[in-house]
Amino acid sequence: MVHILDENQIQDNYNKFRKLINQTFTGERLESLNKMYDTLEDRIILTPASSMEHFHNAFAGGYIDHVLRVTRNAVKLYDLYNEVGIGFGEFTKETIIFTALHHDLGKVGNETNSWYIPNDSQWHIENQGKIYKSNDDMNFMNMNGRTFYMLNHYGIKVEEIEWLGIQLTDGIYDEANKEYYMSYTPGKALKTSFPYLMHQADIMATRYEYERWLRSKKPKLSKNVGGRPTKKQKLENIKMPEKLDFKSIFGDTGGSHS
To answer: Among 64, 124, 173, 233, which is disulfide-ready with 229 (CB 3.0 to 4.6 Å)?
Structure first.
């Protein structure tokens, strides 16, 4: 098992997460979000982003680390979309931050139980990299279904465009999303570019996290017959940042982003 974050990094990420919420939202929405996260705090800070070591962020603190990275990517993509003239004026930074921070909320579990629990099978850990397993004592819901359940349970209103962003973040990797992305009639085609932005932000984060995991395993270096570096060697030589520079993205100003 590869440990990516230490205790201080986990706590630092969580502090950034709560600070971002309090800087971005106001009024009833902020009150409801803080109520939810005060309740979930002891569990969410240690929640992984997946169960399998070779997926992404399958370690304590992996969930918060992932949603912060998706949020950073989404905010940067928002500026790029505006620059090239895609979806200008369709959504605000508040919409982006809310959606990015909650696109995987269902992975946390429900109001009392964690969805991912430590695997008690050493064989599965060592031979399959299955660090966590699903909590079979909970009612099954798919991840998006539990996300919307949790937001509803804590009285957090979701705008239509935010619903689309959360539902469609996984792109067509989720079979249920195909009818949204693969419409062949103009009337049924997506009328907002927001789901595309969210999917790109998420897949960029997931790919980074996968490559970081590969690097952390420090694979053996070997030479090809022709003396060229292998893909593993090239990956080993890539310098990848370990910390999220939130100040340069969001700044330290309070209030709502728009």
So the answer is: 233
Distance CA(76)–CA(16), nearest Å, equals: 18
pLDDT, tens digit (0-9, with 9 covering 90-100), for 5-34: 899 999 999 999 999 999 999 999 999 999
Tokens 């800087």 correspond to what residue?
23
**Cα-trace Rg, the chain:** 19
Q: Record the tokens describing residue 230, joined without a space.
A: 């292998």
Highest-pLDDT range among 40-54, 214-228, 240-254: 40-54
Tokens representing residue 55 in the block: 């997926």
Sort 103 into a burial class: Cβ within 10 Å, 0-12 / 13-18 / 19+.
Answer: buried
Could you say which DSSP state residue 230 is in? P
Structure-token match 């680390």, residue found: 65
Report yes or no: 103 and 67 within 8 Å, Cβ to Cβ.
yes
Task: Identify residue 159 by its one-letter amino acid code.
Answer: E
Nearest residue to 190 via CA among 213, 164, 216: 164
Residue 117 host element (H or E):
strand 116-118
Which residue's entry shows tokens 């370690």?
59
Say if CB 68 and CB 17 are below 8 A apart.
yes
Enter the tokens of residue 243: 């910390």
**How far apart are alpha carbons 201 and 169 in whole angstroms?**
9
| Helices within 48-142 (DSSP H only) | 62-84, 93-102, 122-128
| Both structure tokens of 237 | 């030589």
